[in-house]
Write a structure and sequence with these properties.
This protein is an alpha/beta fold. The chain is built from eight helices and 18 strands. The N terminus is likely disordered.
Length: 283
């Protein structure tokens, strides 16, 4: 499988084609982001575009996730594509032109880009299959990376997580996998009763017990050996086996975390952004 990159600030220059990920010793591929799911619970929004491309403040949530990692110096990404991967490819191919001023000569189609400061990221866009499950996507991308540790998360969740602390926690424990555990925000107001009388109402209480998978993994290359193939769901047998063998530890993140599973979640994140209160905006 080949990959291509386009020099966007030189119109007319064709893609450079390579059969493997371009890696430099000083800047390895270090972040994988899942962006291939169908997003069925946001079907009204994902008919024309994949869920990671739904916008918060005019930018895809995928961009917000990448900004979190880039703040801590992780600026090379492998995006696992599936459903409507062409939309994500088009976004990044045209990113330089879309985020800068242009001068266009309509008679001949020539244009000049007037560059401003732009993200210095390297983005690998890898087609991992339409029907491939999460484990299969990890396996396909990891095989392109080579045998090295990497970070992984889902393309629909943001947090005010400290990536440096997460990586240090992983190294300290020396296990194959670290998962970020979060307490999910409650979706409904909470009631405390005294008989039939409501004694206390809490608008958005945090669930008092239980932690869930919040993404933001750190994975050693050996994790791939726990994944059989495209049909493997990472959150099932691979993580269960890792836990059973004592190779999975949890970094507890008790601060802000929010996924974008529903239209309500999307509205919540947009409102936080518009009201200048986005807790995940650490840049």
């Amino acid at each position: 499988m080949g990959s291509a990159s386009v020099n966007a600030d030189r119109p007319g220059v064709g893609p450079r084609v390579s059969g493997k990920l371009r890696r430099e010793k000083s800047n390895p591929v270090n972040v994988m982001i899942m962006a291939g799911g169908l997003g069925t619970r946001l079907q009204e929004e994902t008919v024309a575009r994949p869920k990671p491309m739904l916008e918060i403040g005019g930018r895809p949530i995928l961009w917000h996730i990448m900004k979190i990692y880039a703040t801590y110096g992780y600026k090379e990404f492998a995006i696992a594509l599936g459903y409507k991967g062409d939309v994500i490819k088009s976004y990044f191919i045209n990113y330089h032109a879309l985020t800068n001023d242009l001068t266009i000569e309509l008679g001949n189609g020539h244009f000049d880009i007037h560059p401003r400061a732009c993200e210095d990221w390297t983005v690998h866009l890898i087609d991992t299959g339409l029907e491939t499950q999460t484990g299969g996507r990890i396996k396909r991308v990891a095989e392109r990376m080579g045998r090295q540790p990497f970070l992984m998360t889902y393309g629909d969740g943001v947090a005010d997580i400290n990536i440096h602390e997460l990586v240090a926690f992983h190294r300290q424990h020396g296990k194959l996998a670290t998962i970020t555990a979060v307490r999910p925000p409650a979706r409904f107001g909470g009631l405390t009763f005294n008989g039939d009388r409501v004694e206390r109402f809490t608008e958005k209480p945090q669930i008092g017990e239980g932690w869930i998978n919040g993404g933001f993994f750190v994975l050693e290359p050996g994790v791939v050996d726990y994944i059989e193939g495209d049909e493997s769901i990472f959150e099932s047998e691979p993580l269960e086996r890792l836990a059973a063998e004592g190779e999975l530890v949890a970094y507890r993140h008790a601060s802000f975390w929010q996924c974008m599973d529903t239209a309500r979640d999307l509205r919540l994140l947009e409102n936080l952004w518009q009201n200048n209160r986005p807790p995940w905006k650490i840049w």
